[in-house]
Amino acid sequence: MDVYRQWWLHDARWYQGVAKRFGQEVANEINAEAIRYVATHVGKQILRQFGGGPAAGIEELRRHYDACSEWMFPGELRDGGTTVVADDEIELTMRQNFAVTMVRMAGSLGDYECPCTDIHAGWSEGLGVELTRNCATACLRRGDPACRLLMRVATP
User: Helix 116-127 to helix 58-72 angle, to the nearest 10 degrees?
Assistant: First the structure.
């Protein structure tokens, strides 16, 4: 766990340095681009872990997204999970998110843009899934009690 903490401390300082030198908008843009790249890689790893083929249904796909979440953000740093809310929709709920906590502590929460939809887009790309909807319906950053993110999966 110490490796995670040190890496995230580095990431936080890097983000703050970019924001200070080039502006919050640039820091948010680069952060979203970088996290999407990592998320795509994680999605590919999880796809291989689950046999390399597409999910056999929405419930299996939900488990793939949970595995992606656990791989990137260990359970001790977040409180959340996914549920199937319709035949083609998965909702990810997070009641605690270390990134929001750290950005708040750094005093940058006001201008910080959560890259959550970029993370989901990356996971989906890595898993070979096309999303027709990828949006936040609630956000801890805005003071909501939980982040709620909705992903609608394109059906062939």
Answer: 120
